[in-house]
Write a structure and sequence with these properties.
The chain is an alpha/beta fold and 532 residues long. Helix content is 41%, strand content 17%. α8 packs across α19, α9 packs across α18 and α13 packs parallel to α15.
Length: 532
């Protein structure tokens, strides 16, 4: 698992290390500064060869202390460095004050009267933001806003922890001024320490930086880390290992037949609206479900049959017919919603799918993925919503989430005026708890949570940015991928995390020009890259 930390969790880990006597705050600050300089030279290796001009803007807390260390280290490399300080030098925290004095032993602190956008553009090749880091809890206003504005208007090259003004937990820009809600226009490099923060992969902040680098400051073995059960995971290493483990297991199944690998049932809409179900079915089959059946209204049989080969078909006109089909206990995963329809008949189908009869099937507990139209029907009918259970996965996009959980969505949409701000992770956790099942809240910053509070972010940002994944039908494929993994025996949370990760990997493998039909067809190549 790759952990993401909140600002409070990071502070607790640092304090635990200091309290243990393993390290001092001053040593941690020095390591942070070294990490920033390393990251700069790794990002721009040519800068290691000659002298350059940098401006470092330091703030009134420990983020500013990191900035003083960076300024000193660059100066020692022969760079021309100018430092500005927001706040009272005499009120700096003890460690930051020490590093301020160390800097003053080799350079001066410039007057803030010089600090303008034009001055920064004319007098620096690199602008480093060390003003407000992870501890910011209020909007940038007055003198603080003016101090940061010049830097943000000129363009930030490097930000330490987060660009000033952003909430490290939510990725929101903390602002009392609605007209500036987007904050700075962009950052070339963010450098943070030990673990990325949850906000780096959410909301506005996730779109602001070209690169994010995490530098170790030697806190890997702090006991506090492992005791905190609320740490959010980043869906990178864990889903990759899960996919590898699952595929190795599939290779070694003894006495296997197609039903040993699960039977996924995908419900289709009527004639003329069958494509979404076929996309989901193809995804379920490609990811490894042993058998996939599309259940469709009788009038759609010919339309589906004309375009399906390995995927089976079954006529299902209504809930009574679905109940008869589900007598086959080998069917252990269902997907409902893609272009299903919004009538009473479709609501009855969902109610039948959510009805638990007889507990477990011979091939595991029957699991249900609810997407698209199924989510809209759930939002309209509290009784139907109340039928959700722990073996369900909901996959809403923003609009569907707002219909399902209007109060939670409203809270998330409120402008962030204090920090830590309510985040997409918070919202998804609250939604999962209310629904009693896994919720996968889609987006470039997809968040997955279960009712216990376990949460993961599947981010398509930085080196995993795949904007071409925003194409019609891609969500239907994702629903199918989850269903296929559920059929293979994955638990709901693991299936959702792994499918979301593979979904982005397939998009990256194909590249620009991707359409939904291409996604599942990239899975064999992605699996090959995993060494399988």
């Amino acid at each position: 698992m790759t952990e993401l930390l909140t600002a409070a969790q990071m502070r607790a880990i640092e304090q635990a290390a200091i309290d243990s006597g393993e390290v001092t705050g001053l040593e941690l600050m020095e390591r942070a500064g070294v990490g920033v300089v390393e990251a700069i030279l790794e990002e721009w290796p040519a800068m290691a060869l000659t002298s350059h001009k940098a401006v470092v803007l330091c703030g009134p807390g420990n983020n500013g202390g990191d900035g003083f260390v960076v300024a000193r280290l660059l100066k020692e490399r022969g760079w021309e460095v100018e430092v500005f300080l927001y706040g009272d030098e005499g009120k700096l925290p003890p460690d930051a004050k020490v590093n301020c004095e160390r800097w003053k032993g080799m350079g001066e602190i410039s007057s803030n009267s010089k600090l303008t956008r034009d001055y920064l553009i004319a007098n620096s090749e690199m602008c480093i933001d060390a003003v407000f880091g992870t501890g910011l809890s209020r909007p940038l206003e007055g003198d603080a806003y003016n101090f940061c504005w010049a830097m943000q208007a000129a363009g930030i090259d490097v930000a330490i922890d987060v660009p000033s003004g952003f909430c490290a937990d939510s990725g929101e820009y903390i602002d009392g001024q609605i007209d500036n809600i987007e904050g700075p226009s962009g950052v070339e490099l963010i450098v943070t320490f030990e673990r990325a923060k949850t906000g780096h992969f959410q909301s506005t902040l996730a779109t602001k930086a070209d690169s994010l680098v995490v530098k170790s400051i030697g806190l890997e073995n702090v006991p506090k880390w492992r005791r905190d059960k609320n740490i959010v995971s980043l869906s990178r290493g864990a889903p990759k290992r899960a996919a590898s483990k699952a595929l190795r297991f599939w290779k070694n199944v003894k006495d296997e037949n197609k039903y040993s690998h699960g039977h996924a049932l995908i419900l289709s809409g009527p004639s003329g609206k069958t494509g979404a179900a076929r996309l989901a079915a193809r995804g379920a089959l490609r990811i490894g479900a042993g058998v996939v059946t599309v259940a469709c209204p009788p009038d759609a049989l010919a339309e589906n049959a004309a375009q399906l080969n390995a995927i089976m078909l079954n006529p299902v006109a209504d809930a009574t017919a679905l109940r008869a089909v589900l007598q086959d206990e080998r069917i252990n995963a269902l997907c409902l919603g893609p272009a299903l329809g919004l009538g009473d008949n479709q609501a009855a189908l969902i109610a039948e799918a959510l009805t638990v009869r007889g507990g477990r099937t011979p091939y595991g507990s029957r699991k249900v993925v609810l997407d698209a139209d199924a989510l809209t029907l759930l939002s309209r009918d509290p009784q139907l919503f109340g039928m959700l259970h722990a073996n369900c996965v909901l996959t809403p996009h923003g609009g569907e989430f707002a219909r399902l959980f209007p109060d939670i969505a409203a809270k998330l949409a409120e402008p962030a005026t204090i920090g830590p701000a309510y985040s997409k992770v918070d919202a998804t956790r609250d939604a999962a708890k209310r629904a009693g099942c896994v919720v996968l809240y889609k987006g470039a910053d997809t968040v997955i949570a279960d009712p216990t509070g376990r949460a993961a972010i599947n981010s398509a940002h930085y080196e995993r940015s795949a904007p071409w994944l925003a194409t019609a039908g891609s969500g239907d494929v994702l629903a199918g991928l989850i269903t296929g993994l559920l059929a293979r025996g994955f638990g709901p949370m693991q299936a959702a995390e792994t499918a979301a990760w593979l979904h982005v990997e397939c998009a990256l493998k194909f590249g620009p020009g991707l359409i939904a039909e291409d996604i599942a067809e990239q899975l064999p190549k992605v699996f090959a890259d995993l060494g399988l």
